[in-house]
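Hi there,

I know you've been waiting on this one. I reran it after we fixed the sequence typo, so this is the corrected version. Both the input and the resulting structure follow.
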Amino acid sequence: MLKLDCFKDRLYVYLEAGRVKKTKNKIIEFILPEIDELNENGFTLKQICESINNNDCYFKIELAPLKTTIARIRRKKRQINQDPLQSKSSSSQHNDIHIVNTSVKNQCSDDWEQILGFKISERCLTRLIKSELTTDFISNKEFPNEKRLSDFLIKYEITNKP
């Protein structure tokens, strides 16, 4: 059975190791197994939060951000552990459509990158395709980078919603 004192010692050692600044997310991720064990042994998250805040390493966290961070870490672990084939439809037709769309996007991406003179992300490419703007119109605007192009496309979508 894990006690709060052992928990605080482990947290202290982790925070002092290397004296490297760590994000709250990384710290909570490191001590999450201990948090779960303490929770199973009857300690509330409020008690655990108070214990975390009573350390000598100047690491403090409130209860609400602690809960949010724990939920985010668990969701991330579930997504990593989830089989990517299970999340997609098993129908071969759906897979074929996905492959065709990917190849069309890749071809389209290469064309746009050649016209613009810089690489664009998939999100920006999707916005370009949805906007149905011509290559002449876009090339005449002379966007210096993807950020400016993306900003323009977002404003264009907002002003031209059906």
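Quick highlight: The chain has nine helices and no strands.

Best,
R. S.
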